[in-house]
Amino acid sequence: MTLSLILLCVLAALLELDTTYAFQLLLSRPIIAGPIFGCLTGDMAAGVQVGIFAELLFADISPLGGIIPPSGVVATVLPILLYAQGIDLYFGFFIGVLGAVLYSFFDALLRKTRFNWLIFLEKRIGRKPTDIKRIIAAALLLSFLMTFVFISVLAWGSSQLMFMVYPYISAKAHFAFRLAYLAVPWIGLAALIPAFRLKTR
Fold it and tell me: Within 13 Å of residue 8, how many CA atoms lie on the same side as its CB?
C-alpha cells in the first residue's frame, strides 16, 4: 500500500474511535465518513455512493447495551481503499461489509480482554486519582492502534487476494456482484420502512 492509503487507514482508525470510545460527533457514520474518504482518494462520487449504501445497510443497528454492530467505518474505508487500487466498487463493497462484521467480533474480543485491565486500572486510580487523564489517553491510544492494525492488515490482505483472483473472475460474476450492489440501497430502505411506519394502536 502507498503512503496515502496508509494515511487513510490512520484516519479510519481515528474515526472508529468516534463510534463509542471518544468524541461521538457522528463522524464515524458511513454517510459522513464515505465522502471524507472519497475526497482524500480523489473520487468524491465513489465515497458518497459507498457511504450512502453502507448507511442504509447498517442504519437500523445501533451500538446500544451489549450490541456491537458491524463497523460503518470499516464498511466504508475498505471499498474506497480497494477502488483506489483499481478494484471495482461492487466487489470492494461486499469485502467491506464482511470486514465490518469481522471487526465487530474483533471489537468484542478487545472489550473482553480490556475488562480485566480496567479492574486493575480502577484500583490504581483509586490510589492515585491524578493518573486518570493519562490512563484514558493510553486506553484511547491502544484502541486506535489495534483498530489501525486491523484495518491495515485487512486492507492489505483483501487487496492482495483480489489482485490474485481478479483476472479469473467471469463476466457473469461481475454482473451478479454489480446487480447485488445496486440492490443494497433497496434492501436498506426496506429495513427502514417499519421504523417510519405510523403506529395505529
Answer: 30
Note the pLDDT tens digit of each residue in 55-96: 888 877 666 666 778 888 999 999 999 999 889 999 999 999
Domain residue extents for the chain = 3-196
pTM: predicted TM-score of the whole model, two decimal places: 0.83
Phi, psi of 128 (to 5 degrees): -140, 85
Asked if residues 44 and 96 have their Cβ atoms less than 8 Å apart, the reply is no
d(CA 137, CA 175): 47
Task: Identify whether the C-beta of residue 75 lies closer than 8 Å to the C-beta of residue 99.
Answer: yes
Distance CA 95, CA 103 (A): 12
Share of the chain above pLDDT 70, in %: 80
Contacts of 63 (CB under 8 A, 6+ apart): 19, 20, 69
Q: Around 68, how many Cα atoms within 13 Å sit in the side-chain half-sphere?
A: 15
Query: φ and ψ at 37, to 5 degrees?
Result: -65, -40
